[in-house]
Amino acid sequence: MLDLLQWLLAASGISGFEAPVRDAIRESLGDKLQLETDSLGNLFGSIGEGEPHILLIAHMDELGFVVTHIEENGCLRFRKIGGIDDRLLPSRPVIVHTQSGPVRGVIGMVPPHLMIDRSQMKKVIPWQELQIDLCTRSREETEALGVRLLDPITFQKDSFVLQGKYLCGRAIDDRFGCAVLLKLAKMLAKKSLNRKITFVWSVQEEIGLHGATVIGNRFTPDIVIAVDSYATGDAPDVPYHLAPVRLGDGPVLRLLDNRAIASTELRKQFEALAKKHSIPLQVGATGGGTDGSAIQRAGTGAHMMAISVAVRYLHSTVEICHLEDLDNLVTLLETSVQDLKLP
């Protein structure tokens, strides 16, 4: 799981530009699952026949930027894609993904030595006032690197393991979900199933669940399982009671967020299966929303459950999850999708 997830984390794929992630998933699955892609870019495939029809979904896209203007001095202006906090931006290394290949740069900042008003040090600089420095001296020199308007930009990619069991990196939300679905698809493709299971790797979740809305109009599943992150209170300086689950204590049933309330009947089944197979399991409420709510609204009101792992520092460049939670999530899903009954 660690190797698979770090491989997916290294792929670039901001909302609307998910092709590298989609290609990596296709490569990993090979001929184990017959895959299709729709016009928006969602990747999906089904195995098994019968009822209930269970749809599992995880989103491929990550937060990032696009180039919106090239200044005469060669620097880039940009626009945020997704919910990025402006506090993260100054002094960050980034990669512009051009048709000619990656171009590295940095989001610059005024050094304190040259600040006329030292109170500037206490202010958050809005993204509109920042520039990406490629160390070119003119618009022509930047264009010669292959940089064009609306090229996607990501934070510099890096991932590493802390204390032997915590994975830290950018875009754990929701590449962990993509990796879990990948591993699950490979496991279930070898089995004889008495139900239909559809796997979906969606696009444009971070800008409003667009990919999932399209999927909801294409499929009418009985049960939807969204595999996505859970912003946890288990972190320094974060009020724990806002999202009280802990890293390492097992996967999480995300029963309530800003967009949906999960099925109470499915909760009972998941809790019973977790107890039967000795799988640690947590329940909780958090903010945000998942693709599950979009499919539920677009379709016929499928029974929905969002299943997560706790993630520290969500939507930052140092998201952290626990590797044992990922393994337990795969085990829980492998068991549940074969045993779940329509409520």
Please write out the topology.
Layout: H1 2-10, H2 19-29, E1 36-37, E2 43-47, E3 53-59, E4 64-70, E5 76-81, E6 93-98, E7 101-107, E8 132-133, H3 139-144, E9 152-155, E10 159-162, E11 166-169, H4 172-188, E12 196-202, H5 210-218, E13 223-227, E14 230-231, E15 252-256, H6 264-276, E16 282-285, H7 291-298, E17 303-308, E18 310-311, E19 319-322, H8 323-339
What does this structure look like?
This protein is an alpha/beta fold and 343 residues long. The chain has an 8-stranded mixed beta sheet with strand order 1-2-12-3-13-17-15-16, with helices on both faces. A 6-stranded antiparallel beta sheet has the order 5-4-9-6-7-8. A 3-stranded antiparallel beta sheet has the order 10-11-19. It has helices at residues 2-10, 19-29, 139-144, 172-188, 210-218, 264-276, 291-298, 323-339, and strands at 36-37, 43-47, 53-59, 64-70, 76-81, 93-98, 101-107, 132-133, 152-155, 159-162, 166-169, 196-202, 223-227, 230-231, 252-256, 282-285, 303-308, 310-311, 319-322. α1 (2-10) crosses α4 and α6 (264-276) packs across α8. It folds into 2 domains: 2-62 and 170-339, Aminopeptidase (3-Layer(aba) Sandwich); 64-155, Peptidase M42, domain 2 (Elongation Factor Tu (Ef-tu), domain 3, Beta Barrel), CATH 2.40.30.
Rounded to an integer in angstroms, the radius of gyration calculated over CA atoms is 21 Å
List the strand order in the largest sheet: 1-2-12-3-13-17-15-16
Query: CATH superfamily membership of the largest domain, which one?
Result: Zn peptidases
Strand content: 25-35%
> Runs with pLDDT <50, length 5+?
none
Q: So how many helices?
A: 8
- What's the rounded overall pLDDT mean? 95
Tell me the helix content: 25-40%
Order of helices and strands: HHEEEEEEEEHEEEHEHEEEHEHEEEH
The number of distinct β-strands equals 19
Specify the CATH class of the largest domain: Alpha Beta
Q: At the third CATH level, what is the topology name of the largest domain? A: Aminopeptidase
Could you describe the largest sheet, including whether it forms a barrel? Answer: 8 strands, mixed
What is the number of domains?
A: 2
**Termini separation (Å)?**
32 Å
What is the approximate shape?
A: globular
Second rung of CATH, namely the architecture of the largest domain: 3-Layer(aba) Sandwich
Structural class estimated from helices and strands: alpha/beta
